[in-house]
Amino acid sequence: MANKQFRLIIRKLKEMFNIVQLLNKIKEAQSNNVSPSEQLKYYEELKVEIFTYIVAEIYAIAFFITYLRVQLSMISGVMYHENQINKSSTMSDGNSLLKDTTSRYYMFIGLLENFHQKGIEHLVGIVRNLVKKSFHNLKITDKVTLKDVLKNLNEIKSNWNESFECLIEENVLHVYRHCDQQQQQQRQNSSTDDGSIADDENAVKCKLLNEYKACSKFIDEMIDITKLSDFRTVMENCIDIGYSNLFDFINECFIQFEQQQNSQQTMESRQFINPHQINVVLIKLLPLIWQQVHQNDSDDDNNANRNSSSNRNDNRSSEFCENEKRNRNALLVQFLLCSDSLTCFAANIYEAFCNEMPTRKNIGLSTID
């Protein structure tokens, strides 16, 4: 599920950026001998777009994985608790106390659809402003080192952290409270219907109304959880993992650039490449970064078909592992899902909801040092 949603996030992000159009404009400008100053404007815009994209990927994936893991833990805990009640009722009087309520769980998970719209747009808008601020003094014609780029990326991260709590609250409201308002409106519409509707139709509306009420309880609990300091700690850890992944990617881009410059050398004559000693004009680095981003994102969709045709005797699990290794963001998803802080936090949420609807003080990172 996480990997499928990850591909939807990447697709949504690409729809929000005009990087391909900018690259086409630059090619047209070069072929039509457009003035250098005009071409530099395109490159400055390209600089903002590319760095916004690769940083926004971190926050979009980290926020989504955290939301998803927390919601699934809540649902799992409630299902266990209600199944225990159901077993006790069945054993005592032979009747099942609880009816099928899985639709409300689907409704609650379905709220993440709103993250693909409002939530991602909110994150991208914030990141774009931070990129413009941090990369303002780094001109497109400047020679840059790996240290220069990482310094600017760290500045973005620091500026984000200054208002982290407020930004989480804003994003949560975009994703969950917006949906809750829509559900309240639908509940009001259902409650104002006249009594002329048929009994079976009325039963359906009542069932839907009860599901909305149950889902609203989940939403309230979710919003309370996101206000916990431990939730912020988990989110910070996930974002740190994302930045570590991004720094490795930028490091590889510098190495790749140097390898392209020395492509005439034979494999035997090549020596160790220290990325910190490489100087490159930013205008030459940007297309390479986007090429690597595009290659990584395309691998997730295309590698499975290529591998299955060339290695028909390999089992599916080994193919999956190879595909994931070639895609840095798919690998990031796996890192986040297995991170200690998120796993521990999710386990505490599950345990709390297994017993009853918990209070905020019952959930935390009690087992994390």
Automatic annotation (TrEMBL):
Upper lineage ranks? Answer: Eukaryota, Metazoa, Ecdysozoa, Arthropoda, Chelicerata
Query: Can the keyword Membrane be found in this entry's annotation?
Result: yes
What highest taxon heads this organism's lineage? Eukaryota
* Biological process annotations from GO: protein import into peroxisome membrane
| Keywords associated with the record | Membrane, Peroxisome biogenesis, Transmembrane, Transmembrane helix
| Primary gene name | PEX3
Q: Which residue windows are transmembrane per the record?
A: 50-70
> Can you cite an annotated GO cellular component?
peroxisomal membrane
Q: How does it assemble?
A: Interacts with PEX19.
Q: What protein name applies here?
A: Peroxisomal biogenesis factor 3
Q: Name one Pfam family in it.
A: Peroxin-3
Q: What does this protein do?
A: Involved in peroxisome biosynthesis and integrity. Assembles membrane vesicles before the matrix proteins are translocated. As a docking factor for PEX19, is necessary for the import of peroxisomal membrane proteins in the peroxisomes.
Would the keyword Protease be found if you checked this record's keyword annotation? no
Q: Where is this region: Disordered?
A: 296-321
Entry's Gene Ontology molecular function annotations: protein-macromolecule adaptor activity
